[in-house]
Design goal:
This protein is an alpha/beta fold. It has eight helices and 15 strands. It has helices at about 100-110, 130-140, 155-165, 180-185, 190-200, 240-245, 270-275, 280-305, and strands at about 1-5, 10, 15-20, 25-30, 35-40, 50-55, 60, 65-70, 75-80, 85-90, 115-120, 145, 170, 210-215, 220-225. About 35% of the residues are buried. The structure holds guanosine-5'-diphosphate and zinc ion. The site of zinc ion has 7 residues, from helix 7.
């Protein structure tokens, strides 16, 4: 699209994607490869991953396909990236994931229309093989699983190839599982870019706490979201859990009688009948019931507390 100028020339509009945000300016990577700052209003609501159309000084945000949110320590919700299509849930044998973490993360990703995948890091550690085979037996039927070591570089290529298929993703995982090491192994520019961004607005280190979007050398894109840790994902509801629980996929093409079925004791429940047939493992179902109880207890606690959530 072009608009005519008074003196007869036209100003071309350019498409790009926001790769960093500095409060009063965003950094845009244009389709022609140029990377330039564009001024925006302070509370514009733009985030990395937003597709934009820039016309002179004017920046227009295009509609989003997905939004990734996180919760901070005080419960505040922040949008950390737009238009991601995959979310890597990173776990290790040491430290082991907190109970329920993997299932909640998978459900939260699915609710946000992101395809979750699992990364078991630190495969060089003793006992890691056993850990991987347990994880694989539980989740292998539900989602892609990568087992790798950022420390030794072992088995990183399958994950590189996965991103190279055109995926834009981020990682979530408890502190200490190896997310930073993995980001650096996949994308050596991340450290350098953080330094460059700080130079850009001359405000020192504050900008390191915001998300940045990186093009991976082998293809694909990664959003680096500092502080996006173990409980960084937004809470899930009991209803979301029952709709997206990993392991219940065999029930997805068979309907429960009730649309809002919680798969507990309802008549005509597809999940319960598949558990009875052995097509959904008993242990998966038991884990589901425990999580459901936790989440429902939290939900009724909020209601009693008079909150608005
Ligand atoms: P983060 O908190 O999730 O970002 O984790 P880090 O990347 O900071 O790593 C936490 C610790 O695990 C550090 O001491 C790393 O050196 C170590 N670590 C990370 N990746 C690996 C790995 O592949 N193998 C081993 N053995 N240690 C690792
Ligand atoms: Zn059901």
């Amino acid at each position: 699209m072009t608009i005519p100028f008074a003196h007869g020339t036209s100003l071309p509009s350019r498409n790009g994607v926001i790769v960093a945000h500095h409060g009063v300016a965003v950094e845009v990577l244009f389709v022609d490869g140029a990377r330039e700052p564009v001024r925006v209003k302070r509370r514009s609501g733009h985030v990395v991953g937003d597709d934009v159309n820039v016309l002179g000084e004017m920046l227009e945000r295009l509609p989003r396909r997905t939004e990734l949110r996180r919760r901070d320590a005080t419960g505040g919700i922040h949008l950390v990236g737009a238009n991601l299509d995959v979310l890597g849930v990173v776990i290790s044998s040491s430290p082991a994931p907190p109970p329920g973490f993997v299932d909640r993360a998978i459900v939260a990703a699915r609710v946000a229309c992101l395809r979750p995948f699992l990364v078991v890091s630190k495969c060089d550690l003793e006992g890691a093989e056993e850990f991987v085979s347990v994880v694989d037996s539980v989740y292998g039927g539900s989602l892609l699983l990568f087992s790798l070591s950022a420390a030794t570089g072992e088995r990183l290529d399958p994950l590189r190839e996965f991103f190279a298929d055109g995926h834009r993703g981020a990682f979530v995982g408890a502190s200490g599982v190896g997310k930073s090491s993995l980001l650096n192994a996949l994308c050596p520019e991340i450290d350098l870019r953080v330094g460059a961004l700080n130079d850009y607005n001359g405000k020192g280190c504050h900008t390191t706490t915001v998300s940045t979007l990186h093009q991976l050398p082998a293809g694909g894109e990664l959003v680096d979201t500092p502080g996006f840790q173990d409980f960084g994902l937004v809470e899930i509801s009991a209803r979301e859990l029952s709709e997206h629980f990993p392991g219940f996929e065999p029930a997805s093409d068979q309907r429960c009688r009730f649309r809002d079925c919680r798969h507990r004791s309802e008549p005509g429940c597809a999940v319960i009948s598949l558990v009875a047939q052995g097509r959904i493992p008993e242990e998966r179902y038991a884990t589901y019931r425990e999580l459901l109880r936790d989440i429902e207890a939290g939900e009724s606690g909020h209601r009693r507390g008079g909150g608005n959530g």
